[in-house]
Amino acid sequence: MNDRQIKLAVGCLLSDKRLPKADTGAELAAQILQAGQLAEMLNSTAENGSRDVCGTIFNVLNGSSQSMVYPAQTLTEKPVYPQKNAPADKQYMQSVSSEAEALVKSEGITETLVNKLLRLYEEKLAFVPGSAADIPLYDHLKLTAAVALCADKYSEGAAIPHDEKAFVIYSIDLSGIQSFIYDISSKGALKGLRARSFYLEMLFEVYIDLLLARLSLCRANVLYAGGGHAYFMLPNTAETLAAAEEMLRRLNSDLLGAFGSSLYAAAGWAACSANDLRNKPQGSYKQIFAAISEMIGMNKLSRYNAEDIVRLNAPRTTGDHSRECTVCHRFAKKYDNERCEICAALERLSGGILSPDTLFAAEDMDSPRDGLALPFGKKLTSVTENEAAGMIKADPAALIYTKNGKFTAGGIYRNIHLGNYVSQGDFAGLAANANGIKRLAVIRADVDNLGQSFVNGFSKTGGGRYETISRTSVFSRKLSEFFKYHINYLLRHGEYQLYDDTPKDSPRNAAVVYAGGDDLFIVGGWDDIIGFSIDLKNALKCFAQGTLTVSAGVGIYPEKYPISAMANETGSLESLSKSYNGGKKNAVTLFDESGSYGWEEFEEKVLNEKLAALKAFIANSSTRGKAMLYKMLELIRDKGENGRLNVARFAYLLARNCPDKDGEEKNAYIAFEQKMYKWIQTDKDRRQLVTAIYIYIYMNRGVEDDE
After folding, report:
1. Where does 529-586 show beta strands of DSSP type E?
2. For position 321, what pLDDT does the model report?
3. Among candidates 49, 64, 83, 173, which has minimal Cα distance to 457?
4. Which residues lie below 8 Å from residue 381, measured CB to CB, with a gap of 6+?
5. Residue 706 — pLDDT band, cuts 50, 70, 90?
6. Residues 338, 325 contacting (CB under 8 angstroms)
7. What torsion, rounded to 10 degrees, do the Cα atoms 397, 403, 405, 409 define?
8. Burial class (CB in 10 A: 0-12, 13-18, 19+), 582
9. What is the DSSP letter of 593?
10. For 439-449, how does the pLDDT look when each residue is reduced to its tens digit (9 = 90+)?
């Protein structure tokens, strides 16, 4: 950005009366005021609570009508759940203002200050009300800066009528993420999976920063980024759109050269006015995103031009000894030990990638540091904090990234929220640390009907008054924080436990492979993954006030099972959950198609009722419990030619194991027998019982085998 744009952005970010003022030049005062008024208009199309404390956009999402609020506090890994009441905290805001003032004094009016203020506000002002009660001050000031920078480029400071299409909402969608991550060999699979997931995250983030630099904009113009998707607010000028298209062409050309057709970025955009962005007239806001989605879909159908197709189908030249990579199976030149350049570099950097304290830089290819090739002639390198500080001193615009880092005044300002929890470094360690049977489990999950929530979520309450760009942006950010940041806390502090003697707040035996804007792939010990699935459901319910649900698939595998098969099979289980109960979703599927349940049914009926009954009875019984359970399973499965359960044989099995001697044990057995007999009478209870028996056997198989 040039000096004028920097001053404009800083002025907007300090435009709230609760923050320090900065002299950004009298000639920009009117434009800053106009941008602030326009952003406030976009924010406050409809009020949602008092401005004394920060409300929540989930109050009015998907037909909800609530009045929950957040206490003023710093954004941390621990999720902040809405509550009914919270006191106004002026002292907290004063402390943030003091930090901002110190930044201004130390940095001066520079582009570094812009990025540092955005970083500070993201952490400190995410739960402070802005121009509308449910729009945090962080998002309001960020939108103000985005509006101002777009208006400056569009009209060079002149006032813009509210019905003039001065803005563009520009979107990028990266295809091929799942296959890129999961279609690898199983050797060193966990490190490889996590490294490839991180590489794609960084590739996307570097592209965003290079695009913004090319357009002379800043991170304030990013409305959302996560999971291979991004939305930007750009000025509606021919120069801007041409530059964005040029960057997209170069990105796809570099992806084509490095990965063939496996990765592809499609773009879509729509011009809009300030009135469109606040849904005036009603329905105009939806049309923006409908047009973007249609354009992205069309671009995905016609990915490549004639030159690209020739490039993809070019015959091998004489002397080209390329062979298939043993890790990713791409056809490429070998770099080391039968691996392609990318896979070899990923393995070399995997230690730093998996370390929570490592910093990363996007450097030019001529840098002496070893790195991993990125598009645009860059490479990803791991650097120490001292190296990063030196790079920023030499070039304040250096691309340095931290993972889930706290705000520092040292200049490292590009923070990436990343689900990076890991308890063991490989599948063998995860399986060995599982309780009971030594097996892995994989969970794949994502939010139900998310597209509909974005398109129609704010139209169901208030007759469309809440359909504004600011609320969509806040909604996107909150979901991204949950899946990319708070997910680490949920795994670090496991609540639901299958084993009664495992304390709550215990770290999970698990590792995050991928956690995007609304979905995740996590592998771990089978018992911890089942427990985590309940935590995930409960946490999202609290976080989003019951306005969103999640569906999941959970598969159990031996440690050497092919990772690509784990991914595909668990994805199929997730799809079964999505079609559960006539497509109503909000479900989990365990093991196979017979294990689909609504979350409440699974938790209350399978785990808290059936499994609890098995645990309580067998723990206090001298009968041969496990052998009896296997025979019960055999009888339930063997329904005979007429497809009906042989109830008489089942009753006989129960009766012959009844203790002869009267007393507490016999009374307990009779009560257990009555429950079992009742539960096998209906398909629903019988199916729940089968799942509970499987889980109980898994819980005790390893222990009993050792004995």
Report:
1. 550-557
2. 59
3. 64
4. 360, 361, 362, 363, 367, 369, 370, 371, 372
5. very low
6. yes
7. -10
8. exposed
9. G
10. 999 999 999 99
pLDDT band (50, 70, 90) for residue 50? low
Of the ranges 209-213, 559-563, 602-606, 691-695, which one carries the lowest mean pLDDT score? Answer: 559-563
- CB count in 10 Å sphere of residue 280: 19
Whether 48 has a pLDDT exceeding 70, the answer reads: no
Alpha carbon distance 83, 14 (integer Å): 29
Q: Is 54 helix (H, G, I), strand (E, B) or coil?
A: strand
Per-residue pLDDT, 704: 46
- Residue 579 CA neighbour count, 13 Å, CB half: 8
How would you classify the pairing of strands 229-235 and 222-226? antiparallel
**Whether 70 contacts 54, CB under 8 Å:** yes
Residue 586 φ/ψ, nearest 5 degrees: 55, 55
Q: Report the C-alpha gap between 37 and 52 in whole angstroms.
A: 20
Neighbours of 116 (CB within 10 A): 25
Taking only the tens place, the pLDDT of each residue in 295-341 is 999 999 888 777 777 777 776 554 555 677 878 777 766 666 777 88
User: Residues 6 or more apart from 308 whose CB is under 8 A from it?
Assistant: 252, 253, 256
Give how far the C-alpha of residue 301 lies from the chain's centroid of Cα atoms, to the nearest Å.
26
523-536 pLDDT, tens digit each: 999 999 999 999 99
Torsion angle of C-alpha atoms 479, 484, 488, 490, degrees rounded to 10? 20
Tell me the per-residue pLDDT of 422-442, one tens digit each, with 9 for 90 and over: 999 889 999 999 999 999 999
The residue whose two tokens read 């490839």 is: 196
Task: Give first-to-last CA distance, the chain, whole Å.
Answer: 70
Cβ distance 166 to 155 under 8 Å? yes
CA neighbor of 18 nearest in space, from 88, 100, 106: 100
Distance of CA 305 to CAs 189, 292, 331, 640, Å? Answer: 35, 21, 22, 60
